[in-house]
Amino acid sequence: MPEPSAPAPAGGSGGDPAGDLRVTRGVVLPAAELGWRFSRAGGPGGQGVNTTDSAVELRWAPERSRALSAPQRERLLQHLGTRLVDGALVVRASEHREQRRNRASARERLRALVAEGLRPPPAPRREKTPSRRARARRTDAKTARGRTKALRRRPDDG
């Protein structure tokens, strides 16, 4: 008889599907804030496809979450925008035949979406004026191109 393995650490796709979800080093979504719904999935599955609730729907409401600070919540809500359904982020997973694997997949997708939304925006690009040499190269290239095209024209009779 195989020995029971030690539980994996919370977070990521390898964690306990019913435990807290670690998004970043400082943000952990409590399990109490995650809502699960299970339904029958379509597709392959043999005889068990019509009897097993293997599709998973994971819901999390960032507006009501205590795991986020005010600036994090604002950034995340702005990033998610149209993905929110009644104020909740909904992730559906039905690509696997086992509910356990679909739960892990949904957790990982939720983690990735929230982590991406919490990432700060990139620094704005500083526009620079081209150097004098760069401007000269550009005009030289334009002149050379014009000469090449002039050779394709019909010569003047005059």
Number of helices: 3
How helical, in percent, are the residues? 25-40%
Distance between the termini: 102 Å
What's the CATH architecture of the domain at 21-118?
2-Layer Sandwich
Low-confidence stretches: 1-14
- The chain-level structural class is alpha+beta
CATH topology of the domain at 21-118: Double Stranded RNA Binding Domain
Main sheet: strand order: 3-4-6-5
Name of the top-level CATH class of the domain at 21-118: Alpha Beta
Mean of the pLDDT scores? Answer: 82
What would you say about this model in short?
The chain has 158 residues and is an alpha+beta fold.
List keywords for this structure.
two-stranded antiparallel ribbon, 3 helices, single chain, 6 strands, 158 residues, Double Stranded RNA Binding Domain, 4-stranded antiparallel beta sheet, disordered N terminus, alpha+beta
